[in-house]
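Feature request disguised as a bug report, sorry. It would help if multi-protein outputs had a clear separator. Right now it looks like this:
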Amino acid sequence: MGYVEEMRQAIGSRPIIRPGVRAIIRNEEGSVLLQLRGDFHIWGLPAGGMEIGETVVEAMRREVFEETGLTVLRARPFGIYSNPAYTITYPNGDQAQPYATGFLVDEWTGTLTVDGDETLELRWFPLDSLPPPEQILPAHRRVFGDLQRFLNSGEFTVD
């Protein structure tokens, strides 16, 4: 049982602050990898929560591998996301306010693998041809603009 499951046994579905990670993985053409999420059945970035005993980088590498089958070789942070406006209610009723570090994955290896549970589909999207906003997890919608600013000017996002 993981950290969140243990916390949920004690507090139920009440809101918690959930430290986690988001990863933007790009291919050689600059397209970004999105996953069709098993929980909400909409697109999102490979992402997830930290577990007790791991660093934020270890969490990002683990989540990317679990959700995509890819091994991160090199990544750099481009933003921190903690805005309570992105508090989420999961289908089971659990509520969480994310506190996530966004990473740009610069180098990776492996073969895309869909687990059929957390990830229903993996697909590369050009930045100018993303799914419609209503088909992207709300907390992940703005990240693509933040990525463009980071790539153009090095500006680190704090929200």
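(second protein starts here, but nothing in the output says so)
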Amino acid sequence: MSARAAATHRAVVMLRGINLGATNRIAMPALREALAAAGFENPRTHAQSGNIVLGTGLEESELSDRVEALITQCFGLNVPAVTRSGQELARVVAENPFSELADQESKRFQVTFLRGQLEPGVERRLAELATPAERFAVRGREIYAWHPDGIARSKLALKLGAKAGLGEDVVTTSRNWTTVLTLLEMSSRDVS
């Protein structure tokens, strides 16, 4: 199926674990070029950490699979992708249970996006890792988390960011609130 399926919508693709240190290096101009050559409409990137907004007619799961396959084919890397439509990302922002905290210091507030559902018992294990000052909430396939003492020192943040931190079959990637808002703004622009 072509990336240009019938009805085009804006989608956000978040890659897990690229351009961190010397591993999984992908230049964003080369990634945009590969996506455009594959038929995705007006691919745009934000920062170097694998944030992509593009036009597609593919559904979420197929889009993730296609982007992962494209990265393997073009760059020789196995990089997981988590996708949301622009409408879904707008819902994530609108339903933030800690909007007052996110507005205080957005770099200490993250959303972890899941490709799949949490396994039973994971939420309880996350609560055991959280410090008394931290707050988190699971809302469907997103986990909102506030780390007032910083992300680098948080056991909860480390678990949310671990490759298999939320279950062997659950692909995740986290974005700070500033990035989430930027991706929402990018996804609300015309893609053609």
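Even a blank line would do. Unrelated, but nice: DSSP finds seven helices and eight strands in the chain.
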